[in-house]
Write a structure and sequence with these properties.
With 202 residues, the protein is α/β, with parallel strands linked by helices. It has eleven helices and five strands, in the order βααααααβαβααβαβα. The protein has two domains: 124 residues, 3-Layer(aba) Sandwich (Rossmann fold); 64 residues, no CATH class. Helix 4 runs antiparallel to helix 5. Pfam families: Hydrolase (PF00702).
Length: 202
């Protein structure tokens, strides 16, 4: 059995906290209206089109046609997207720093909009430790499709058996494990640290 010597990270809710609610709870005061808006208008399912490569100008035009009374709120999603990511997940950046200090190769695979990624990435030194990051919106491939993992392994120059993949979504973990990558279903930094130590990565 190959020794695991490489770690691949997801980003949203592993390295950076993410929820559409973080933005719109600032903009919609009424709790019931907020819940309705998040469940019917700007939903994760709508946003995931951006992760798959669709441009915001198209998705927003379609959504505004459906919900014209909410045009202003919909239009703000792109310019204020970073407010859906209000900060780092506690303890993970420190683990990444430790892994980097131990010369463990670090990579990323993230379902992320190609349009939103550059502005989000700017000024976040945690990503300086990564050798490469596959962004779904740039590749028009999304997790848990096997093709995005295969593309990543080829691009990173690593084999499935030498990698640990850390993601908060179980379906993404299962997609990676189907190719022979060891998965860690992320819940918090303490459990991830224990896994990294068990694998002699820390």
């Amino acid at each position: 059995m190959s020794k695991i010597d490489t770690v691949i990270f997801d980003i949203g809710n592993v390295i950076s906290r993410w929820d559409i609610r973080f933005l719109y709870e600032k903009l919609i005061d009424d709790p019931q209206e907020l819940e309705w808006f998040l469940n019917h208008v700007v939903t994760p399912e709508w946003h995931f089109q951006h992760d798959a490569g669709r441009p915001f100008i198209e998705t927003s035009r379609e959504l505004i046609a459906q919900f014209p009374d909410h045009a202003d709120l919909i239009s703000l999603f792109q310019s204020r997207f970073n407010e859906t990511n209000p900060g780092e997940v506690a303890g993970v950046a420190e683990l990444i720093q430790q892994l980097h200090g131990a010369d463990i190769p670090l990579f990323g695979i993230s379902n992320f909009s190609a349009e939103f990624w550059p502005h989000f990435r700017k000024g976040k030194p945690v990503f300086d430790h990564f050798q490469d990051i596959v962004i779904s919106g740039e590749e028009n491939l999304v997790k848990p499709d096997a093709a995005i993992y295969e593309l990543a392994l080829n691009r990173f120059g690593v084999s499935a058996k030498q990698c640990l993949f850390v993601d908060d979504r179980l379906d993404n973990i299962e997609g990676a494990e189907a190719l022979g990558i060891k998965g860690h279903h992320f819940q918090d930094a303490a459990l991830l640290e224990a896994e990294l130590k068990a694998l002699s990565l820390l």
